[in-house]
Amino acid sequence: MEKIGFDSNKYLKMQTERIRERIARFGDKLYLEFGGKLFDDFHAARVLPGFRPDNKLIMLSQLKDMAEIVIVINSADIAKNKLRADLGITYDADVLRLIDIFRAKGLYVGSVVLARYVEENTAAALFQKRLEDMGLKVYRHYTIKGYPDDIAHIVSDEGYGKNEYIKTSRRLVVVTAPGPGSGKMATCLSQLYHDHKRGIKSGYAKYETFPIWNLPLNHPVNVAYEAATADLNDVNMIDPWHLAAYNQATVNYNRDVEIFPVLNALFEKLMGSSPYRSPTDMGVNMAGYAICDDAVCCAAAKEEVARRYYHALVSERKGLDSGREAKKIKLLMDKLEITPDILPPVSAAEKKAAETGLPAAAMRLPDGTVITGKTSELFGCSSALIINALKILSGIDDSVKLISPKAIEPIQRLKTEYLGSQNPRLHTDETLNALSITAADSPEAERALECLPLLSGCDVHTTTILSPVDETVFRKLGVNVTSDPVYSAKKLFHV
Question: What pTM, to 2 d.p., does this model score?
Answer without folding.
Answer: 0.89
